[in-house]
């Protein structure tokens, strides 16, 4: 969390510099990069807020109504971040295509100086978030945006150099289009991953059909039903399953099924309901 806070501070400074330089020079490429930095700032702010809320929930007296705590706050923040980035990228693309018809003159030296500063800031934050991106969806969201901004800063740097060397006015809107097109697919993946969690779709790396087959192969187990596997938040996968067991084998089936879920699928937080013929008949499913 400390690295996230430091990275946020660095990006706020970079955002201020790029917005000022973009408005002063009229560079759309700089403003597009600043727009992406803005989403980084908002995304990292939401990530920090979600992490703080989860920690607070874990250390304070939890409301009995919040049986899962507030872990999903991280996922909601990631989805909001993806929606925001889609909007910014869309605006940049529309504006850039409009400028392609009659590109304005943009001072390349201002673009060079501001992009160098932005590139340095992005590289610092990129290194700060690299490890955390493997553990948290929300930090990964910020990490991907910083990665896009890093490449965006390189693009603005190239556009500034081309403008200074050759006076080619198309360099600015062309780079702005390239940045927008680069960011959109990554934003789509981030939003899709967040929606998968919110819709309680099974994690992509878990084959539910294979899981059911492995449980069905447990000696004494039969009639595997009501299998549910979902992600609560980054790194927290849970599930539930109902099995019928042969008479006298309930404990053995429970132990074996838990072992299958742990060793084969890395699922430790799973509720396994063992039923006999009478309990199964009395628990008719309604949904």
TrEMBL record:
Provide the Cation efflux protein cytoplasmic domain boundaries: 204-276
Q: Domain (Cation efflux protein transmembrane): give its ranges.
A: 7-199
- Record's Gene3D superfamilies? Cation efflux protein transmembrane domain
Q: List where this protein forms a coiled coil.
A: none
List where in the cell it is found: Membrane
Q: Which family does it belong to?
A: Belongs to the cation diffusion facilitator (CDF) transporter (TC 2.A.4) family. SLC30A subfamily.
Kindly provide the name given to this protein in its UniProt entry. Answer: Cation efflux system protein
| Organism placement in taxonomy | Bacteria, Bacillati, Actinomycetota, Actinomycetes, Pseudonocardiales
């Amino acid at each position: 969390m400390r690295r996230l806070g430091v990275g946020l501070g660095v990006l706020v400074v970079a955002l201020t510099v790029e917005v000022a330089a973009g408005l002063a020079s009229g560079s759309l490429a700089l403003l597009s990069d600043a727009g992406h930095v803005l989403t980084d700032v908002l995304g990292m702010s939401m990530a920090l807020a979600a992490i703080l809320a989860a920690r607070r929930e874990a250390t304070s007296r939890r409301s009995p109504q919040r049986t899962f705590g507030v872990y999903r706050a991280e996922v909601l923040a990631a989805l909001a971040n993806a929606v925001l980035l889609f909007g910014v990228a869309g605006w940049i693309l529309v504006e850039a295509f409009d400028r392609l018809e009659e590109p304005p003159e943009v001072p390349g030296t201002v673009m060079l100086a501001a992009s160098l500063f932005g590139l340095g800031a992005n590289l610092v934050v990129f290194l700060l978030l690299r490890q955390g991106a493997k553990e948290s969806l929300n930090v990964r969201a910020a990490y991907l945006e910083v990665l896009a901004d890093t490449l965006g800063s390189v693009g603005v740097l190239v556009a500034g150099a081309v403008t200074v060397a050759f006076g080619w006015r198309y360099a600015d809107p062309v780079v702005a289009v390239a940045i927008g097109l680069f960011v959109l697919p990554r934003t789509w993946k981030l939003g899709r991953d967040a929606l998968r969690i919110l819709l309680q779709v099974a994690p992509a790396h878990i084959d539910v059909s294979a899981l059911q087959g492995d449980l069905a192969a447990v000696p004494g187990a039969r009639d595997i039903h009501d299998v549910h596997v979902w992600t609560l938040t980054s790194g927290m996968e849970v599930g539930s399953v109902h099995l019928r067991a042969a008479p006298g084998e309930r404990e053995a089936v429970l132990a074996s099924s838990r072992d299958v879920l742990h060793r084969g699928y890395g699922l430790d937080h799973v509720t396994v309901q063992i039923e006999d013929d009478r309990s199964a008949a009395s628990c008719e499913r309604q949904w």
